[in-house]
Fold:
Amino acid sequence: MTKRYGAVTAVRSVDLDVRAGDRYGLLGPNGSGKTTLVRMLLGLVYATSGEIEVLGARMPREARRVLRDVGALVEGPAAYPNLSGRANLKLLDAAGPRGERRTRRKRISTALEQVGLASVDRRPVKTYSLGMRQRLGLAAALVRRPRLLILDEPGNGLDPHGIRDTRQLLLDLSADGVTIFLSSHLLAEVEQQCTRVGILDHGRLVLQDDLDALRGPTGRVLVESPDAGQVATLLNGQVEHRDGAHLVVRHADPAALNQRLVGAGIRVASITPQHQTLEEVVLKVTGSGDDQW
Amino acid sequence: MVTVELYKLFTRPRTWISVLLICALPLVVAVFVAVTHLTPPPGQGSAFLSAVLENGKLYPAAALALVLPVFLPVSVAVVAGDSVAGEAASGTLRYLLIRPVGRTRLLVAKLLALTTFVLLAVVAVTVTSYLIGVFLLGPGAASAPAAVAQSGAGGAAGAAGGLPTGGIQAGSGVTSLSGAPLSLLQLGERVAWAVGFITVSMLGVAAIALFLSTLADSALGAAIGALAALVASEVLVTLNAASAIQPYLPTRYWLAWIDFFRQPIFWRDIQRGFAIQAVYVAVFLAAAWANFATKDITG
Structure:
């Protein structure tokens, strides 16, 4: 799909592939088009060209059917400041489909518990901290037990506890079968909670793959040994880098390497296969000179 | 969705503050009139004001004439201008739309809430000013005529000028502007008609402001835009050179509700007033819908 604002093309020819049950992380620097993409998925912004299918139905044509099974947090939470958090959730629940009045109170209490706002009182939202607002926004997305969660920068404004709680919550929801699509400019957020990654750069989807595939082994092994000198002698030619007791060895099989070292009477303090970090992948595909991360 | 919009309307302090302010102006005027016993001579100043000393029961009509030109349209323009642009700015609009609430449904609910607000304001002014009139200015004779000199002619002549000049002749009690007496029942009925007419007149403003509200990024911009349109209209209504377009100006028949207080009721301008407001509401709602239904919500 493509979205142009006048002469500016915010999103060009992006072909997203999110599968049911995925925890999909959309990464991209600020201004790369993440939010525009999320807005298109939700029918807030109309695509200039292309087709969007969410939960098996066309958007925005079937928005009414699709969106009732979707919970979303788009570009920060929003609430009526003079009302309490609970009143805000009630109001939003009453405004659209799937908001049965009979179960409303219980669903709202459950959602508030899930995001750690169970003890929230009657204070109006204008007295809330940034983190509380973020949690309330997340609760609003959860009230109707959606099948798909679309979260734009869910970690914004949260303290370390909040980030950890949210991560655990999303993992639990995912275990219950909820598909999660989150966009973020924070590598760690995506790396720690997603199974699939898409990387957006200047409105283009430059990469889309399973996280495990992206973080494949590099064919190198990290070795730490007090006898680093002996290691270097033994594996002459295979040691790519040595820094004190730490060595980077070109070798496909850490177990075999360990056996060989130990067999040679070398003490090994630690030995691990080297994986590509998501950061390396991202920096590679987004090209140099991009210092917006 | 309508109940949600009404809930939002009634839980907003701003709603009650503006209603309070609209009701406060007639109170201030009544206090001054009651203390000084000075009223504009018949035919001058705000309509009906000259007659209220004789009969406080007529004060609702005088109060409506006081708030109609500025207070009421300003508060309607502010509330209507805020209705979409304000939610877009605070971000709640996108959460309503992905809830999902259909855009057309949302717009209709906003309009119904606006109508309720206008009706609330007009009725509040009427009721409070009736009480103010009776307690501060005295109830006057039981049922009485205060009458406006020119009946049909007044309205017809008013076609060129903005403000009808027909004041109330000092009669004894209540009052038709034409001299014939009105029973209390008739008075109540006519006040109710006037409330309806003024509400409809304000819906024209509301529709313009609602349209601008779907267009503008800021609620303030939308409100000011609607007020600018009204001020322009009020200026042109008094300008003889603009007589060609006057029948189509939104404020042209705003004061036609005064004709409800003639005996018999002079319907021509009232009907035209209803008609022109209906056209404005239809056109600007359609424009608001056309714009909003296809708009990218980026706020």
In short: The two ends of chain A are 24 Å apart (CA to CA). Chain A touches chain B through 31 residues (CB under 8 Å). Chain A has eleven helices and 14 strands. Residues 160-175 of chain A form the longest helix (16 residues).
